[in-house]
Amino acid sequence: MKVLETDRLNLRWFTPDDAAFIFELLNEPSWKRYIGDKGVRTLEDAKNYILTGPMDMYSQLGFGLFLVERKEGSTPIGMCGLIKRDSLENIDIGFAFLSRYQTQGYGFESASATLKYGHEQLDLKRILAITSLDNHASSRLLEKIGMKYEGTIILPNDTEELKLFASE
Q1: CB 126 within 8 A of CB 167
Q2: What strands, in cross-sheet order, belong to the sheet with 75-83?
């Protein structure tokens, strides 16, 4: 199901058919460095990630992480969406792109559309974002879409200090 459309991109719900793409994305060095190793080693693992992650959230909340694809050729290039984590009070925005599609404006295009969708369509008053302290590219992108840096936090049951951003 298509959720959002921008000039160059479509954002849609993930399906189990996207397992090969998820396998590639979750095994990117930047994903493992900044987001963490999700243990996706096979296509079956990738399918399970989709079923128990994004698809489960769609059924519970009506939103989640969306597949970002270029309109031209329907090429999957990344993910961007809204997530409800048990460890955060508010919904947060998240995004990740295959390295070959980074620094081309796709992150800005999809994240700004997703933030607007969260505020205007889902009527979310406050949307958060978290990044690793050394993930400067994501921090810049969050500020570019209008999110404000609020400081650092450590999530429950974790030890890593993270940057916290918010949009109201």
Answers
A1: yes
A2: 2-5, 9-13, 65-70, 75-83, 92-97, 127-132, 161-167, 148-154
- Quick check: is 111 in a domain? yes
Within a domain: residue 109? yes
Beta-bridge mates of residue 148: 166
Write down the pLDDT at residue 36.
83
- What are the respective helix, strand and coil percentages of the chain, to the nearest 5? 40, 30, 30
Total domain count, the chain: 1
Residue 4 has pLDDT above 90, yes or no: yes
Q: What mean pLDDT value characterizes the chain?
A: 94
Global pTM exceeds 0.85: yes
Please state the length of the chain: 168
Measured distance CA(168)–CA(147) in Å, rounded: 8
What's the domain range around 64?
A: 2-124
> Strands, E, within 40-137: which ranges?
65-70, 75-83, 92-97, 127-132
CA dist 3 and 115 (Å) reads 13
Q: Is 131 helix (H, G, I), strand (E, B) or coil?
A: strand
**Residue 113 falls inside a structural domain:** yes
